[in-house]
Specification:
Elements (H helix, E strand, L loop, with lengths): L2 H4 L9 H9 L1 H30 L3 H30 L9 H23 L4 H34 L7
Helix pairs in contact: 2-4, 3-4, 3-6, 4-5, 5-6
Length: about 160
């Protein structure tokens, strides 16, 4: 059996030229700053949303936190699309991040439904908060996807191809 067929690891996440573009673009730093901020805002907002759902108190604070989270989400999605264009040559759904982008769109859709319901007052506050919980659960799944990709990218650089992990 050749080394190529015995290696069960998938191809590296980035080609050498993609890695060079990733490391050279300011958008990598932008994503690296925005992602933990968004995560922190989401964690605080989750607490506020749960507080409202459990006690009926704090609707305004929960709403403000959701709006901040949503603004960060839209910002990170736009800057992430630019990053993907620089690194992979297409704005979204590059093969290396296809499923992360799919789940990101579910997260965006849920946040957008929330905004629509809030602005049109067509969805009751309790249901708005439940939509937010669904959005946040999906967001945490998406964040996990990205953390696993980050881990994979680090392992790719730490372990030369053809050598056991």
């Amino acid at each position: 059996m050749s080394a190529a067929t015995s290696d069960t690891r998938s191809d590296p996440l980035y080609t050498p030229s993609q890695r060079a573009r990733r490391d050279a673009t300011v958008w990598t730093l932008v994503q690296g700053i925005l992602a933990p901020i968004q995560f922190l805002v989401c964690a605080v907002s989750l607490i506020l949303v749960l507080r409202y759902l459990l006690t009926g108190d704090g609707y305004f604070a929960a709403t403000v936190s959701i709006l901040i989270k949503t603004a960060l989400l839209y910002t990170i999605m736009v800057t992430g699309a630019i990053w993907e264009k620089v690194v992979f040559g297409q704005y979204l759904f590059a093969p290396a991040f296809f499923w992360e982008d799919v789940v990101s769109f579910v997260v965006i859709a849920l946040h957008t439904v929330y905004l629509y319901g809030l602005l049109t007052q067509s969805i009751a506050p309790q249901q708005l908060m439940l939509i937010t919980l669904a959005a946040y659960v999906t967001y945490f799944v998406n964040a996990t996807q990205f953390l696993l990709k980050l881990r994979r990218a680090r392992l790719d650089t730490a372990t030369p191809r053809g050598h056991p992990a």
